[in-house]
What does this fold into?
Amino acid sequence: MKKFVAVLLIALLSLGAVALAEENAAVANPWTECDAQTMLDTLGFVINLPEDAENATYRMNTELSLAEVDFTWQDMAYTARMQPTDAFEDISGLYYVWAYEEACEIGGCEGSMLRGYDEGLTIDLCLFYDVVPGLMYSVSASGEDLDGFDITAAAQAIYAPVQTEA
It folds into this structure.
């Protein structure tokens, strides 16, 4: 009788594990890898990169109309994001306690530079908002020693005013 109960218990636990695995498998990844043209065709905008940027990997989350690109520029790895919003907000996806924040201006757009620290890394973030088309931007980079590094140079390099039809 004990063997029967043990086998029954194992069978029930296995069914629960299978159901849990099927439930987790049903959660789709909201990010789709794409190229710049597909991003433009799908979202109506694209993140511009500096001409000498390398290793660009474009992704988009169509549900959130959120564009993202990882790239290397001047020997530094960056992540840039862009999203239509009604106001300035943090779209970076970075959740650090920021040790430092300073106002900045990127191409006439109001912004903020932030710096945080995590396990020996320095994380720099620049957020800025282009009011006319309603587009929020974020540009981030991290490294062991970012003293003298200026995240706004990358933000200036990717920013291109978006013209809207009147």
